[in-house]
Amino acid sequence: MEETTIAALATAPVPAGVAVIRVSGPRTRLALKALFKGKKDPLRHARTLIFGEILDFKTSATLDKGLAVFMPAPWSFTGEDVAEFQFHGSPLLVQQVLRSLYAYGILPAAAGEFTKRAFLNGKLDLAQAEAIADVINAKGEEELRFAGEQLKGRLSQAVSAIGEPLRDVLAELEASIDFPEEDIEPERIDQIAARAEVARAKVSQLLSTYAFGALVKEGARVLLCGQPNAGKSSLLNLILGKKRAIVSPISGTTRDLIEEEASLGGQKFVFCDSAGIRETTDEIEKIGVELAKERIPWADLVLLVVDATDEALSWQSTADLLRESGKRVWLVVNKIDLNPNAMIKVFCDSKTCQQNFYISAKTGAGIGALIEALVEDVGKSMPERGEVGEVVTNERHRDCLRRAEDSLVRFADAVASKTPALPILVADIREALNALDEIIGKTYTEDILGRIFSKFCIGK
Ligand SMILES: Nc1nc2c(ncn2[C@@H]2O[C@H](COP(=O)(O)OP(=O)(O)OP(=O)(O)O)[C@@H](O)[C@H]2O)c(=O)[nH]1
Ligand SMILES: [Mg+2]
Description:
Layout: E1 6-9, E2 16-24, H1 28-35, E3 36-38, E4 50-55, E5 62-71, E6 82-89, H2 91-102, E7 107-108, H3 113-120, H4 126-137, H5 141-152, H6 154-178, H7 186-208, H8 210-218, E8 220-226, H9 232-240, E9 258-264, E10 267-273, H10 283-295, E11 301-307, H11 316-325, E12 329-334, H12 342-345, E13 355-358, H13 367-380, H14 395-416, H15 422-440, H16 446-453
Parallel strand pairs: 1-7, 8-10, 8-11, 11-12, 12-13
Antiparallel strand pairs: 1-2, 2-6, 3-4, 4-5, 5-6, 9-10
The chain binds guanosine-5'-triphosphate and magnesium ion.
């Protein structure tokens, strides 16, 4: 149990109807007694919202009227004594209340510290703790659903269920090391190998969900690529519904990569606008062109934006480049307001591009169809609602699962070698278990916790 007591604003630091300050730790009771004068004593009426006055530490003057609630350890979010104060959402008032709390030896909470304490006190496991950040940051419905399932412990249960039989396997193998005179019979080894194989298959199955898990969480990555002046930035702005990138009639306007998230049809996308690809002597533009080319591997899908008035079909060289990359490419013929004929004349061979679209970023023609197609395309990679079991959306979890899978494959290879060295078998199973335990935080290091919780906001 931590000895320090922490406090932070749990709501957003902006003027709002209500602000909530959360306090956790042994000094919570002291703070409630000193700084809250309620109709009833919150300490005697735990888990009940009490109306009263929040007081200034120096003058005992009323800072605001509001509510306080006390949640005694261990039945609180952090497992420690916790209090929450609700009052008018004025950032200035928030500062005054926090200052009063600090005067009682309470410290400002670090990022994610409440959740970290909840984890350390066994209130939730590490995957669940991570899910809190995912729930808070979710931008799409599917993302929220997966995060919610993880918070409920669905992934943790699946991971534990894989680990339990492995623990038995480990115990049995370790016992054999301790009593070398009793050789393991070959049938036992086969049984052990079969159990490890079941675990390996489950780990691989979980890993296979990461592809769409990441798609849901990180968003589908769409790169806008093409010749200068084709209208890439105009298209980006139109999709986003705001002027994010500079548009100008001068070729070579965009140099940096411009990345922006958008939610279309409830699905998260990340669009990236890039410099028009061409030979150039301009030093800065050259860097931009390089950046654009280097970005191609990043994309799930490339929109090759071309100018409908480009009679010379100068985009063909970029199309060649994209074909070689092996990426999925859609041709987007822009500026059809200037040359409606392009709708029958300009298209891309099916080897390079899967689909052709005809749009005008100026009039908005054809944009609806393009966006619909984007949403539908992502939908195809998604499992049906209800059909989905545990989904891995977190890169750390994926890395742990990969390590577990590697160890179990090594174990299977060693068993198959017919002369398995017992200590090696034990080491493989132990490594697999360690990797699984890291997902749920059964084993952890300060370093891992630091990396996870530092990404949280203050007050979580
Ligand atoms: N008539 C017409 N003009 C367009 C259309 N889309 C873009 N433009 C114009 O074409 C010019 C170039 O547009 P941008 O969006 O800056 O083109 P870009 O591909 O980002 O250009 P670079 O950043 O230089 O590579 C601007 O003057 C736009 O207003 C369109 O659909 N119709
Ligand atoms: Mg541009």
